[in-house]
Amino acid sequence: MVSVAIVPAARGGELITEYDIPQKESYPTAVTTTGDATVWFIEFNANALVSFDSKSGVMKEYPILSGKSHAMDMTADKNGILWLVEQDVNVLSKFDPKTKTFKEYVIPFKNVDPIIVYAARTGDIWVLGWNNDMLIRFRPGTEKFEKFIIPTPNSSSFDLTEDRSGNMWFVERSGNKIAMFDPEKKRFREWGISPAMKSPLGTVFDSKGMIWYLQMVDNMIVRFDPKTAKQETFDMPKNKGTSEIAMDQSDNLWMVQHTDNRLLRFNTKTATMQMFDLSEGESKPNSLAIDTKGRVWFTESGTGKLGMLDTAALLDESKKMRVKIKTTEKIFR
Q1: Residue 255, domain extent
Q2: Residue 2 binned pLDDT confidence (cut-offs 50, 70, 90)
Q3: String of b and e for 65-75 (b: at least 16 CB within 10 Å)?
Q4: Mean of pLDDT values over 277-289
């Protein structure tokens, strides 16, 4: 741990609060949450993992063991352990918040370029490689890796989630498909989206077991029924691209739009959209996570901030957004 920052706690009633990050040029990216108060994110340029205690306002930085690791994604398992994929060094990294220590595992397959990581309910850690059609399983108990080759070549597979039966789901951005892998049978199943390329993004489940993803080419939100393979599409507002999606406990689909500098909330029950423009035009939000209180946390790579949208402040669809910028005292130890 090399730095600590203490930020003032957010006051009630503010819709969006932004917190300064100690290293402005650190380029914060992937974000996740653990427990009811701790937010974690990666500082891409600083090669570090950062924790933020939303109750105390304390922000701590932990250097990643491998230099210039290019850590791309992060997930938290059921025990609160953080798992990161380090693309440039072909490593899966574990961080224990209790001991404040990292442990790195070199992935024993060539040219994996790990880009997506997901912690399953079973405790297994799943990894997608970029441009190599690999789905990889790591079992922490045995510390063994196992790889599975995605049937569609050059699939550019992306985003991972699991269904209630423990099957892993993802999209094939170049393969133009939705895919599922059954870990017990070790078998893939794929569904073509359409004859035309749609560049799908994101896989999240709602409470009814429906999968939601985006079709980036024609600017659509899609609901996919795994039982019938039927799809229903919904138009999105004009935009320049979404970088990540998440589903909250009320079946609202949240999207973060890097270039358009905003967050979107799509109510999947009423098919209505709400947009939240950020206060600074160069915020460039790129990742989001939803905590147990329903708060939406997001990283702002352009301005070097951590943002939080408090859904409790959303009293109605017409509520105006108020943004409060929080300053940070920089302390280096």
Answers
A1: 1-63+236-333
A2: very low
A3: bbeebbbbbbb
A4: 86
